[in-house]
Amino acid sequence: MNRRKENEIKGIFGLVVLVFLIFLLIPLARLFLKSFMGDAGPTLGHYAEVLTGRGFLEAFGNSLLISSVSAVMTTALAFILAYAVHYCNLPKGYKGFISRAAVIPMLLPTITYGFAIIYSFGKQGLITQLFGAQLFDIYGFNGLLLGYVIYTLPVSFLLLSNTMSYVDKKFSIVSRIMGDSPFATFVRTVLRPLLRTLAASFVQCFFLCFTDYGIPASVGGEFEVVATVLYNEMLGSVPNFSRGACVAMMMLIPSMVTIALLHYLEKYNIRYNKISQTEIRKGAVRDTAFGILSALILLCVLSVFAVIFVVPFVDEWPYRIQFTLEHVISVFSDSSLVTVCRNSLIVAFLTAAAGSLTAYGAALTTARSHLPGKVKQVIENISLITNTIPGMVIGIAYMLVFSGTPLQNTLFIIVICNVIHYFSTPYLMMKSSLAKMNASWETTAMLMGDTWLKTIVRVVTPNAMGTILEVFSYYFVNAMVTVSAVIFIAGARTMVITTKIKELQYYTKFNEVFVLSLLILAVNLAAKGLFHYIATDRQKIKVKRTVRRPVISKSAG
């Protein structure tokens, strides 16, 4: 029985590793070799050509600068929002609104952010007209900064909010009782436990900004960044795959720094044996200040997207502002756009299904097995690598490896690309959920004659269904909004909404762009609502069954 259990676990582990070997390691190795290949054999000439070429070092420096500034600003703003939710005595409904509103930008593709900024803050923009003057130049550094902050705010907020929910707030009370000043209490009991998460937020936001292509594609202007250099090398008017491979490998430099930094920051993790339920004391000044600041932050972020709900429903913005549904009707009467929408939905569903199975299988091998630590570390390393590999790099690697194969221009390769690219977070969610479950379930079931696999299907999976639905939702939403990787591997037949938006940009069909963006937002909101309802409904049924189950005392036996 034990041997069969080990074989089942090893089989799952082998399948997971095989998937990442074929669709991650081999493509990256191929990309690495391509960067050194010249007409006469191996050479460093491509790297020398890129490094000494006009504009690359400037673009690389621009990326470092804008990504650093954006990451600092985003982390500070996200901290204010998370602090308002967890450390302020605000109405429960308002806290819920902050938590939901802060993550809304995640439901839209980044390429839409730039168009929203143009139509909001441009010379004829909605917000410009409300203020009577253009507030700032939207092309270049300013536009990128605004777009990047909006893009990374949800990620930073989720990181900080999740950690704050596990910080024991009783130490704040103890600190004040011992005579510490409010500032000392804040530093010791709030900032100190959050140090690693704050650093992780900065790193994650920096990395997302450094590797994003959607926002620079629309508002980058003459402020060139490394992502646009890579796109131009691979899909420009005169593509150069070898130089593009060099640029892609250089984009991995922040990835390696990120991995090393996160390993170093692990020692700053603070863990509590038990989290005390502590009532937050009232503080009129603090609560009012953070309540107002949170409202202003969310107003500034969400107001940028207001234009998306206006432009598609007027005749011609900003000259003929009469209500019309003509633009919406034209989108859904265009058979090619309908096909693109269908492709996106199919890809999102298949990505969510395949990704959930992959993340669940990987988490089972690390959280519910007795495999050696070194074997489990393989999965952990895969998670760390996928968390730091830019989507553009994966897309280019796939373009080099799978061009000319039966997988080229298929929905399958887009699905696999999404599963690999977004693996890290779903895996960590599943691992955390499985690790909290009773460790003796499999042993008890084995003694009763059940196999390990039956126990996983009948006992563990139903108890993990809430997290599985969260993972499914995470994959679905990200598959709907991603653009950086799929732009290199989607063909004419397999085009999805985000790549279609990029195409429509060239023809300045912004009405269609906003209609498709609204469609993505509506689908993602509906999906998240549906998955949340199913998870909540399952939890209610589980609670009812627990309450109705009769309790039999030992004496009654």
Description:
The chain is mainly α. It is 71% helix and 2% strand. It is built from 25 helices and 4 strands. It has a two-stranded antiparallel ribbon. A hairpin with a 2-residue loop joins strand 1 and strand 2. The longest helix is centred in the last third of the chain and has 39 residues, at 510-548. Residues 549-557 have low confidence and may be disordered.
- What is the succession of H and E elements? HEEHHHHHHHHHHHHHHEEHHHHHHHHHH
Number of extended strands = 4
Major β-sheet, in short?
A: 2 strands, antiparallel
Given as residue ranges, the uncertain stretches (5+ residues, pLDDT < 50) are 549-557
What oligomeric state is this?
single chain
CATH class of the largest domain: Mainly Alpha
What structural category characterises the helix and strand content? mainly alpha
Radius of gyration based on Cα positions = 25 Å
CATH homology group of the largest domain: MetI-like
Q: Could you give the distance between the termini?
A: 32 Å
In total, the number of domains comes to 2
- Shape call: globular
CATH architecture of the largest domain: Orthogonal Bundle
Helix content: over 70%
